[in-house]
TrEMBL record:
PANTHER family: TRANSPORTER. It is found in: Membrane. SUPFAM superfamilies: SNF-like. This is Transporter.
Length: 450
């Protein structure tokens, strides 16, 4: 159901569950299914997960609440929201829109790879048990000139078609179908992996912390992962919050969304790591884990082909519910601020983002020798600018803005629906947004640049 706000003609979520599923859909993405298992694998397993939890509570919940409150209060896109409250701060929203624009351009390239792997798994092309052969297959595919670009276009087109449907009819409806399916698939996969002979070693690796493994590197990786995984720091939750009615319970949403995100990340870890252990592979295999190691694991598993198909469809759904949120951040800005119609805006932006993504795809092969920042090609340069600069900067400025400029009293008034809702964690939240958030982010920011 699409509800229009009579006063502002702004579309709203059809239901509370719809909003939660869409926001959780934005959060749950390649970050959970592709990145979390290998980052956890690389950073000591349980030790990383423990630190991740602590940071999630300290920073994740705090910023999630701040972004949603800012969006719902202003009922505007990321730039408009800051501008409405303090003209000079509009640039922070601008950083967010730029980040979403850039992130989507290479996120969609990876989304394209996933579509190709869905097809490969369906046609039996992944039925190979030798990781070396699979590694070459993956390497040759991404280095190809045209094929990955065609898949990048298909992924962008799917994203565009959902966003064209609008907030209620497109994003909310798609999330309501894909998110429950995703939950179902990942639970099945995790149960399968955990019950494999030897799989329990993987569970231990993921859940039992070895405190000696906790160091600054692990903490930094966990903080970066929390940000990326929760879609924070680029105005995504501001935009989604702006389609909320005044009667929603923001504190509750700010707890449920990170919980869903973490549950999926953990389930992804449980689906991937025990299987990797059971078949004697390396948990620290890195970014190739789901494209190279996992197909090798599936090919040795009873009914493995079926699980491979399920897995890649799951990754595709997760990537799409995130990519639509990234496109929506940009679309909302142009529609709100420039007064363009939604259809024209969506096509134009999707076309531009696709074009910007093409060099990222080419940099995996034909343009591998073109270096932009240091020895980084296009793909790595985009990723570096977004992950190391725009996201932490956006998050830091968000903390300062809500904690000190807009002010925690105004934010709390919004969060408690003018004092009518109870907000038990109020004192803690104020402390976290004013002090802990900015300091923690600053430390990571400075460290990531050195
Ligand atoms: N949270 C998404 C993931 O984990 O894959 C990525 C993302 C989506 C980041 C949307 C930021 C964003 F605004």
């Amino acid at each position: 159901m699409i509800v229009k706000d009579v006063n502002q003609e702004r579309e709203q979520w059809g239901s509370k569950v719809g909003f939660i599923l869409a926001a959780a859909g934005s959060a749950v993405g390649l970050g959970n299914l592709w990145k979390f298992p290998y980052v956890a694998g690389k950073n000591g397993g349980g030790a990383f997960v423990l630190v991740y939890f602590i940071i999630l509570f300290l920073v994740g919940f705090t910023l999630m609440l701040a972004e949603i409150a800012l969006g719902r209060h202003t009922q505007l896109n990321a730039i408009g929201a800051y501008r409405k409250l303090r003209e000079k701060w509009a640039f922070v929203g601008g950083l967010g829109v730029l980040a979403a624009f850039m992130l989507l351009s290479f996120y969609s390239v990876v989304g394209g790879w996933v579509i190709n792997y869905v097809i490969k798994s369906v046609t039996g092309g992944l039925n190979v048990s030798d990781p070396e052969v699979l590694g070459n297959m993956f390497g040759e595919f991404v280095a190809n000139r045209w094929t990955p670009i065609i898949y990048h276009a298909i992924f962008m087109l799917l994203t565009l078609l959902i966003v064209l449907g609008g907030v209620g009819g497109g994003i909310e409806k798609a999330s309501k179908i894909m998110m429950p399916a995703l939950f179902g698939f990942i639970i099945l996969l995790a149960v399968r992996a955990v019950t494999l002979p030897g799989g329990i070693e993987g569970v231990k690796y993921l859940l039992v912390p070895d405190f000696s493994k906790i160091n600054m590197e692990v903490i930094l990786s966990a903080l970066g992962q929390v940000f990326f995984s929760l879609s924070l720091g680029m105005g995504c939750m501001i935009t989604y919050g702006s389609y909320l009615g005044k009667d929603t319970n923001i504190p509750e949403s700010a707890v449920i969304i990170p919980l869903c995100d973490t549950a999926i990340a953990l389930l992804a870890g449980l689906a991937v790591l025990p299987a990797v252990f059971a078949f004697g592979f390396e948990p620290a295999a890195g970014p190739g884990l789901i494209f190279v190691t996992l197909p090798a694991v599936f090919s040795q598993m009873p009914l493995g082909n079926l699980f491979a198909i399920m897995f890649f469809i799951l990754v595709l759904f997760a990537a799409l519910t995130s990519s639509i949120s990234l496109l929506e951040v940009c679309v909302a800005y142009v529609v709100d601020e420039w007064g363009w119609n939604r259809k024209l805006t969506t096509w134009t932006l999707a076309g531009l983002i696709f074009a910007i993504g093409v060099p990222a795809s080419l940099s995996m092969g034909p343009w591998a020798d073109i270096h932009l920042l240091g020895d980084r090609g296009f793909f790595d340069t985009y990723d570096y600018i977004v992950s190391n600069w725009l996201l932490p900067l956006g998050g830091l400025l968000l903390c300062i803005f809500v904690g000190w400029i807009w002010g925690t009293d105004a934010a709390i008034k919004e969060v408690t629906n003018n004092g009518t809702l109870e907000f038990k964690l109020r004192g803690l939240w104020v402390f976290l947004i004013k002090y802990v958030g900015p300091v923690a982010i600053l430390v990571v920011f400075v460290r990531s640049l050195t």
